[in-house]
Specification:
single chain; about 625 residues; alpha+beta; eight-stranded parallel beta sheet; six-stranded antiparallel beta sheet; 14 helices; binds alpha-D-galactopyranose
């Protein structure tokens, strides 16, 4: 029988489903910014999480010890705020009341005189230290530790029902408990319970856990029920709003790049994992970096790609490997990843604290413009990441992915500066300054990332290329109809599988998504053989929302990109200002020269860039907004 509680839960789900963003088929301009703007994530979150440091072996003493060091070492002052408890805290669900029970053997302060448990004493202590507190749950009935059996000692105990500690069927109750009663400020919602609890899970077969027919198949997008996954995460978002009237929460999605989440998370939450778990190995760091580094247009204030937590301190990023530790940290800072420390800070040396606390690097990550760095040079060996800062200076990271020293030439063009005026560079690790005009030769040590603040003369005076401002762009629709795995991601050995599996094969979808300064398939932007170093590359049947406030006009040279595989389609570019058509191109075919589009955008808050195909197709061609810019 369905009781009133369940009905309330179902109603919440239905309401949440209704509140979901407009259908993905929507090309019509709305005049609105449609990305998720709830929660507090104007800047990427910074903090600490127990998982990479302790895995399931987490306890109150360890959490408070790292929190204390964060305060005493100055890391809190540098911006690290959230202290997040990951998997391993729960004992069971009280099946009489539905209330979660905390493992008091490891969190003794959670024991209340009346026999119940509460994290309020712990969150009060963290808050009194000037910090914020984060908790962990799963969108299914069971956690990752339960699903995959890791950390058995601290997995929930009891009957099948008591072991159901996940949010499924309990969303409203649990979110109310965690935020209203226990005072948390942040939640990471994992997804193992909707992925690995099928009949083939040995613990399901033996009756320890209830069967949940998976709605995520990590290896098959067609066997993944994306709308069902979205509805569950949407319901959690709605509950977070209900139980945080002041809006002070952060919502972290953790489905590891599955279910095409790299494309849609920005409509549902604040941060979202773009890949499977990081591990303290160089190759794994590359894997996680790559899963987020070409998704620069899918992150903006409020929504950030999450390539997983930092592993600075351990393994290839440990005390013996400061170059690698600095690289890992620099890259996460540049791509606006959450800076969540995953280290037992009781073991940290002053040098390691200095890496995590590098104010200049943190300032790049926390720059208010919220522009994820764009790849200005891309290869398997060297990559240049360029990030446009709020003051219009640039930060550039020159990254040597290899174990050999390499020579690199940085040019004014990479920075979108003129090549006839001096460019001043400040090395943000060494503090040294240098200057060059045109091009500069630099040596990169094995695995080194050199990060510079660059000041020069902008190649586009009086305006900004849209590709310099990914933080102002929301890809409302990217034209991808059949999500395909992204082949550009370094394929590392998965440490927990080693070579027992068939290896790391392409798995995260999002291939063909919108790009800054590249075509949807990563090529250089090109219309009828004319190359564009600046521009947006996106499939047709797409709609981009651009925050255009403060700019007076828009211009672009538009056309079908030369990377189009077929030449029998025609496309039309349209520019809308706050929902009104401002400019449109003719129908343009493959090989037609770039066509100029201009629009007066004075007073416009939201510009929408729409590309339509002349005939309906499920293979929309790649198109280029060449030199697309907003002028003051
Ligand atoms: C998943 C997540 C990890 C961690 C573990 C906990 O694997 O991806 O970050 O939270 O679950 O079991």
């Amino acid at each position: 029988m369905i009781g009133p509680r369940q009905l309330a839960g179902i109603a919440a789900c239905v309401l949440a489903a209704l509140a979901l963003p407009a259908s993905a088929d929507e090309l019509e301009p709305t005049g609105e910014w449609s990305a998720y703007d709830k929660g507090k994530a104007q800047l990427p979150p910074m903090g600490w999480n127990s998982w990479n440091a302790f895995y399931h072996d987490v306890d109150e003493e360890k959490v408070l010890a790292s929190a204390a060091i964060i305060v005493e070492s100055g890391l809190a002052e540098a911006g690290y705020r959230y202290i997040n408890i990951d998997d391993g805290w729960w004992l069971k669900r009280d099946t009489q009341t539905g209330r979660m029970v905390i493992r008091t053997a490891t969190f003794p302060s959670a024991a209340l005189p009346d026999g119940r448990t509460s994290f309020r004493p712990l969150t009060d202590r963290l808050h009194a230290m000037g910090l914020k507190a984060g908790i962990y749950s799963d969108i299914g009935r069971n956690s990752c530790g339960q699903t995959f059996g890791h950390g058995a000692a601290n997995n929930p105990a009891g009957t099948q029902a008591e072991r159901e500690v996940g949010l499924y069927d309990h969303i409203d109750r649990d979110i109310r408990l965690y935020f209203e009663e226990w005072g948390f400020d942040y939640i990471k919602v994992d997804g193992c319970g909707i992925r690995g609890m099928g009949a083939d899970n040995p613990n399901v077969a033996s009756g320890i856990y209830r069967q949940f027919d998976p709605i995520i198949d990590f290896d098959s997008i067609s066997r993944t029920d994306i709308p069902a996954v979205q509805a569950l995460f949407g319901a959690v978002g709605a509950a977070l709003e209900r139980h945080n009237p002041d809006g002070d929460f952060l919502y972290s999605l953790c489905i590891w790049g599955a279910a095409d989440v790299r494309s849609w998370f920005k409509d549902y939450g604040n941060i979202s994992r773009t890949s499977d778990d990081i591990a303290p190995y160089w190759g794994r760091m590359l894997h996680n970096l790559d899963s987020a580094s070409r998704r620069e247009l899918y992150a903006q204030p409020g929504n950030w790609n999450d390539p997983d937590m930092l592993f600075v301190g351990t393994g290839d990023f440990g005390a013996l490997h400061p170059v690698e530790a600095r690289s890992h940290f620099s890259l996460w800072a540049m791509i606006n990843a959450p800076l969540i420390i995953g280290y037992d800070l009781r073991k940290a040396s002053p040098e390691q604290i200095a890496i995590l606390g590098n104010r200049a690097l943190i300032a790049l990550n926390q720059d208010p413009a919220g522009n994820q760095a764009v790849l200005a040079f891309d290869s398997e060996e060297i990559q240049f990441f360029v990030k446009t800062l709020a003051d219009e200076n640039k930060a550039v990271a020159l990254f040597n992915r290899t174990a050999q020293p390499l020579e690199a030439t940085l040019t004014a063009k990479h920075l979108k500066f003129t090549d006839d005026a001096e460019i001043a560079l400040t090395d943000l690790w060494s503090g040294e300054s240098r200057a060059f005009t045109g091009a500069e030769e630099l040596t990169l040590a094995p695995h080194e990332t050199r990060v510079f603040l660059a000041r020069g003369t902008r190649a586009l005076p009086g305006g900004m290329y849209l590709s310099e401002m990914p933080g102002r762009i929301n890809v409302a629709r990217d034209g991808v109809i059949h999500p395909e795995p992204d082949p550009m991601i370094h394929r590392a050995i998965v440490p927990w599988e080693n070579t027992r599996s068939a290896g790391e094969r392409p798995r995260y979808t999002g291939w063909g998504g919108a790009r800054a300064d590249a075509s949807p398939y990563g090529q250089v932007l090109r219309i009828a053989d004319r190359e564009f170093t600046a521009g947006l590359g996106v499939l047709a049947n797409s709609r981009l929302e651009v925050r255009s406030g403060g700019f007076g006009s828009f211009s672009a040279l538009v056309g079908m990109d030369d990377s189009a595989a077929e030449d029998d389609q025609r496309i039309r570019f349209e520019v809308y200002g706050d929902g009104t058509l401002l400019a449109a191109s003719d129908w343009i075919g493959f090989g037609d020269p770039a066509s100029e589009l201009k629009a007066d955008t004075n007073g416009t808050e939201i510009l929408e860039l729409v590309i339509r195909t002349e005939t309906s197709t499920d293979r929309p061609p790649p198109a280029t907004w060449g030199d697309a810019a907003l002028m003051r």
